[in-house]
Structure formats: C-alpha cells, structure tokens
Amino acid sequence: MNVTEEASGTVKVRNSNLEILRILCMVFIVAYHAVGSTQGFLQYPQFSTSNLVIFHWIGLWGQAAVICFVMITGYFMIESKVKLSKILRLVAEVWFYSIIITALMVYFGVLEFDYEVALRTFFPIITREYWFVTDYIVLLLLVPVINKVLRTISKRELEYVLAVLLMAAFFFSGLYEYEFITTIPMFVMFYSLAAYIRMYPNRVTENRNLSIVVLFLCMAFGLMLVYAMNDIYQGTAEPLWLFAERPELLVFFALSVLSAVLVPLLIPRWKTEALVVTVVVLMFAVLLVYMPYRGLGIRGFSEERYSMMMGLFAVSLFLVFKNMKPRHSKAVNWLAGGTLSVYLIHNQWYFSKYYWEKLVEPDILFHDHMVMEILALVLAIVLACLLIDKVRAFFFGIVSRFGPVRKIAGIIDDWYSRIITRC
Predict the structure, then answer these.
(1) Residues 380/333, Cβ–Cβ less than 8 Å
(2) Which DSSP letter does residue 269 get?
(3) 223 - beta bridge partners?
(4) 341 half-sphere exposure, CB direction, 13 A CA radius
C-alpha cells in the first residue's frame, strides 16, 4: 500500500526513482533480518573471515532503510493531506496478513492456536508485532499537526531544531549506547528533515554528486568497521591493540585525516561541499579509533536506527535518488505499491522464525558462493512477497470500489478533515 502519493493538479504522479528506492530499502530490510536470523551459524569454525565480514556488511543497512521510508513519507506528505480511510486500509492490510498467515500455520500443524497466539494475531498493531507499522500509523496521525508546525516556524528555526536533535541522537546514542531518542520522535525528526529538504532546497541537498560521495564514505566505513570488529568478536584481538595488529586500519585513519585537511585547500571553489566531506571523514576516522578503544562493537554507530552512520547513509541514499532525473515507470510503480507487504509477510512474528530455519542451513554458509546465495534468497523473498500482494490488492481493490464502501470512506475522511481543521 502506498500512502504517500504526490499530487500534481488533479492527476497523481509518482516519481519512479523514489519507488525504486522503496524496493531497494525493502531488500536491505530483508537482508538485515536474514543476517540477524542466522547469527547462531557464525560460531561455526568453518565460517571464513571474508565471508563473516561480507555477511555482516550486507546486513548492516536495514535500519537505514527504515529512515528512508520515513523520509519518503515526509518528502511527499508535507505537500499533501492524510486521509483517515487510507490509514484504515493500511490497518486492514496488516490484519489480513496477520490472520491469513497464522491461520495457514495452524491449519498445517506448524503452530498451536492459544490465547497468546490469538492476541498477537488479531491485535498485531496494539501488541506491536509489526513495530514499524504501529509507530508509522502514529506518525501519520501526527502529520497534520507536524505539517502545521513546519509551515509556521521559520527556516532558521527549523534548521536549529533539526541540528540539535540530529547531533544529540547521533552522538549521545552512539558514544554511550544510550537510547537518547525513541522510535516515534525519531520518525518525526526524519520526517521533518525530509520536509525541510522539500521546502528549502539548497546547494547541499540538491547536489547528487556530494550525496554519492557521502554514501560511499558510509559504505566504506561500514566495511572497515565490520572488519575491525571481527577480530574482537572472534577473540583474536584486544580493542586497545587492534590497530597494532591491523595496521591497514591505521593507514585508513591517517589517509582520512589527511584528506580531511587537504580537500578544502585543493578545492576552494567547492567550499560547502568540501566542508561536508571533511566533517564526515573526520567523524568516521575518529570513531574508528574511539569505538575499538571503548569496545563498543558496531552497535553504537551502525546497527541502531538513530546512529550516525545509519542516518548519514539513509539521508545520502535518499538524496541520490531524489536528485536523479525524474522518470515514470508503470512497472516499477506497480511493484513498489506492495513494498509494505514484504515486511508484513516475511516478518510475521512466528512465520519468520519458521522459514529462516527451513530456508537457511549452516552448510550453505561454508563455501565461497555464500554471499551470492544469501542475496539470491533475499531477492527471491522480496519478489515472491510483492507478487503475493498483487493478489491481495486485486481483491481489496474490488471491495474499495464497492459503492457503500466508497461512501463510508468519504464520510470518514470528511469527519477526520473537520477534526484536523479545528486543530
């Protein structure tokens, strides 16, 4: 289901670049869950260092994908209105998959139906079985008020608020592993950031090349971070002596600092762009030293959705796709309309545990083609869920076009609109 369609006159136009980003983000999320669901296999001695590093790296970006989804919503919804009927359709889709999947598992004897199963099946939103959907619905309900605030305050005031929140969330949460900002405030923060990008375009947010550079810096830092932490996880290196045993990391740190000093001097005409790259490189270089020293692992600045690396990766990825030449593809938009279904199907609370155990066997991780097979499995899951959802969407479409249903939806939207107008 696509709640964030952009209006252009009386015809709704969806930028296929951002729809491609939706699909890509869902691939990241499935890969993230694939890595998380197979962590127990990593204790096998046959698992090579290269496979371990690459395996962790391809699963890093799931939390960044969550941020991208929120930013896409903010980018579109700042110029649009939320209809309560669309939120209810979203709730209906969640109920559909929760009930259908549970019913099938009970029918085939995989799951025993009891009070707990009934509670989690029929009340998936209240029980946060799909945490993202629960918090996303709260965000959508807050959108009318958020938009009013964002349009009321000045550009400078919005920049100040975003700067304080982003710095606090990224640095305090990462350096001290303290959850400074919880999910719903984080959603509001990145929604507001995307709205700012839409409302106040500037040379940084409109520069696709700069976004690509920051994106690759994040990817490179993620790879180096996983590589650095691998020895600590395996017990072959102590955090304090990591750089003595891995001199290539020290070289990376030295080159990062050197480039941060030279870039502004060598490219004086690109003062703003050089400053952004310099700050990013310096932060990553310092963190590469600080994190092993603290023994923090990759949690603080990588795995958490409010971390600095995830935030920078998500924002730069969003800007890369946003700044591409606009294009429209019916096929892409048709597929992207079912991206939420991938999350609802593959991450159903019991089904996900069952199929990861059946689909992923330890033996497939112990050869040179492990990465390709995991990626193929992830892509197959995404495609299968997208196609399954087209069947669901077909029948939901028939119901939504039914006269009484359309009339009720119109009444609900009018009632909700009157409430929002009074706010």
Answers:
(1) no
(2) G
(3) none
(4) 26
Q: What is the DSSP letter of 241?
A: G
Q: Residue 284 half-sphere exposure, CB side, CA atoms within 13 Å?
A: 34
How many whole angstroms from its chain centre is CA 215? Answer: 14
pLDDT tens digits, residue range 240-266? 444 545 555 566 666 655 665 665 566
Q: If you ran DSSP here, which 8-state letter would residue 298 be given?
A: T
Which tokens belong to 165? 């929140």
What pTM, to 2 d.p., does this model score?
0.84
When mean pLDDT is compared across 75-79, 223-227, 239-243, the lowest value belongs to 239-243
Residues pairing with 13 in the sheet? 6
CA 40, 44, 50, 54: dihedral to nearest 10 degrees? -10
Which two structure tokens, joined as six digits, stand for 378?
Answer: 């992830």
The rounded distance, in Å, linking the Cα atoms of 43 and 57 is: 17
What lies within 8 Å, CB to CB, of 389 at 6+ separation is 338, 341, 342, 345
3-class state of residue 204 by DSSP = coil
CA distance 244 to 327: 50
**Residue that the structure tokens 């890093």 belong to:** 60
Task: Show contacts of 371-375: CB within 8 Å, 24+ apart.
Answer: 371/51, 371/54, 371/55, 371/58, 374/31, 374/34, 374/55, 374/58, 375/31, 375/58
Beta-carbon contacts of 118 under 8 Å, excluding residues fewer than 6 positions away, are: none
Question: How many angstroms from the chain centroid is the CA of residue 394?
Answer: 27
Compute how many other C-beta atoms are within 10 angstroms of the C-beta atom of residue 18: 23
- β-partners of residue 11 are 8
Angle at which helices 308-322 and 16-37 pack, to 10 degrees? Answer: 150
DSSP letters of 350-362?
Answer: THHHHHHHHH--G
Q: Give the chain's length.
A: 423
Mean pLDDT of 204-216: 82
Q: What is the C-alpha separation between 345 and 334, in angstroms, rounded?
A: 18
What does the block give as tokens for 270?
Answer: 């690109």
- What pLDDT sits at residue 70? 95
Q: What is the 3-state secondary structure (H, E, C) of 34-70?
A: HHHHCHHHHHCCCCCHHHHHHHHHHCCCHHHHHHHHH
DSSP secondary structure string for all residues of 110-167: SS---HHHHHHHH-TTTTTTTHHHHHHHHHHHHHHHHHHHHHHS-HHHHHHHHHHHHH
CA distance 298 to 281: 18
Count of other CB atoms within 10 angstroms of residue 205: 19
What confidence tier does 87 reach under pLDDT thresholds 50, 70, 90? Answer: very high
